[in-house]
Model the fold of this input.
Amino acid sequence: MSHESFDDAFHALFAERSAALYRYVNRVSGDPPLSEDIVQECFVKLHRRGAMPDDPPAWLMTVASNLLRDAQRRVARRRRLTQTWSADLPLGGDAPRADAPALAAEQVERVRKALDQLPLRDRQLLLMRHEGYRYREIADVLGLTPTSVGTMLVRAGEAFRRAYHGLFDASR
Amino acid sequence: MDSSTHPADGDLRALLDGELPSAQRLEIEQHRATCQVCRARLEALESASRETAELLNLLPSQAPKLRIESIVSRARGPQLRWGAIAAGLALLIATVAGATVGRPYVRALVEHIRTVVRPAPPSPPPPPQTPLGQLGVAFAPGSEADVSFDATQSAGTLRVVLADTSKLVIDPTASVTYRVQPGGVVVHNRGSEASYDVLVPRYARHVRIRVAGRLLFEKTGSSITATAAVDPTGGYVFQLR
Done:
């Protein structure tokens, strides 16, 4: 691929995928500044690669997934270091908008907390599928077999809804 | 599949998602046509899947305006340490010139460049440090806390963030050694290229952060003085060079 055609493909991919990648990473992490950093890092790595991978969206998702895992390790290490970090304190996340109805903001917060109760892989699984990724792509990024994705989606979905309804019941 | 064997939930979910190979899809659909249990299970899975999607749709979906120019600029930025290469070349030229000409000012120049390229180790042997070579340290800052990095670095950043913690945390990307002492911590970072996140408790009364003796950040009550502006993520980012 010539330099010009790589640059063109890079710009097109950025225009097409950067917002969706950010949305996915932000929904998995609940941390907008971290999500912005991760998306930028993904595209920096791609640009430095100098050639398009066979499946650019899957490649971006794999890099993002690795960066998310690194970030989660850092957060876990900080928690161990501080030991006083309240589990209730958000590590980031979009603050509910002041003009948003309180109930809607509470519901969003419950969804966020329910997701945060899931292991990172289950969060990624649910949100990749939610973004429309096929089983084969999900399996490649998360290191699963495609035939296990359906079962794992069912279980992750059940765990998510159970956590959400548990939080809902606790708030009543 | 005989009529008494029900497909697994994972296969039913894959059917709903259009992810089953055609032979398996046909088999399950034939079974479903005659199996009330599986029809009910499929409906339940579809409803659960819809509820999950509706809940996930509540999460923020707007992306900030990411600038491709800054990404391309970062990607094209120097990955080699041109400063070190230039200093090395200068040292070579000056050494040759010094050996050839032997003039005092050339020798002085060589010595000066040597200190830049290969800083002299600190003269006293380093005191025992506890703990050694670990990733990160946290301590309660007390009424005053000084965080002192021994040296500047050839690479790496220092990001200072106010946080709702009771401990001051230093979180590097690679192991360094620390000496925690009354009133603060000394980070022995000479030769390191790590980057550091420093979480300063929001309610700490007085915190100073120095690099190679230079005061970069000071928090007194709610007042903050820093040599870097706060970035969009709410942190103060300092280059360690």
